[in-house]
Amino acid sequence: MSPRSKKRSPSSLTSEPVIEFEVDSNGTLRMAGHVEPKTNAELYEDVAASGWRSPCALANAMDLCRPLAREVHSLYEVIRDELAADISEAQKAGAGHKKRLSALQKRLRAMPEEPEEGVAAWLRALTTREFNHWVVPEIERWFGSAPDWSIEEEYLPQRATARGAAMEFFESMGGDELETLGVDLIEGEHPGSSYHAAELSFDIDEANRAAAAAGIAVRFVASKR
């Protein structure tokens, strides 16, 4: 995770450890040695620690984390499909199962086909036993699994990736420092773009000389990727 600080002057950086950034062929900066989260719990650490273990708390956590919401939506669809299958079996079982059939049909009517329309109400209608049996193990499994890096970048915490960590670091700098280093902050290459990055406009050697002369504790190296 990248360090954050208030706007800093060059003189305030002279005693700080030097932080290294990799520069790719397009000038995009990545924090060298950055360790990406290995699990969803590490990636979405604030949400994982938010106390989601109740229907209401999980519904609130879903509002803060779209990937978590997608996981709950998938679970909702599975349970709804299983309920529809139970109804089909009950209908085939004959008149002796009318009471069970009526109860199942009532539950299905309360679950709209589209998860976005019904998942919050469904969660809040679960008993503690149902929530702990159906939902908690699946969400625990998701938090413990590896992140899906193919999801939309806008849903990833900025600090999660080496590029995002670099962007976060340089966002904490003042404009004079950025100008001295030749670092540009790019927030969308075009309208609607989710691309956010810090880019080096100077030659690497030139930027390092400028950093050393100004006492700014950063250095740049060519990316090996």
Quick structural overview:
With 225 residues, this protein is mainly alpha-helical.
Description:
With about 220 residues, the chain is mainly alpha-helical. The chain has 2 domains: about 100 residues, no CATH class; about 100 residues, no CATH class. The chain contains 10 helices and 5 strands, in the order E-E-H-H-H-H-H-H-H-H-H-E-E-H-E. It has a 3-stranded mixed β-sheet with strand order 2-1-5. It has a two-stranded antiparallel sheet with strand order 3-4. Helix 4 runs antiparallel to helix 5 and helix 4 packs across helix 7.
Structural features:
single chain, 225 residues, mainly alpha, 2 domains, three-stranded mixed beta sheet, two-stranded antiparallel sheet, 10 helices, 5 strands
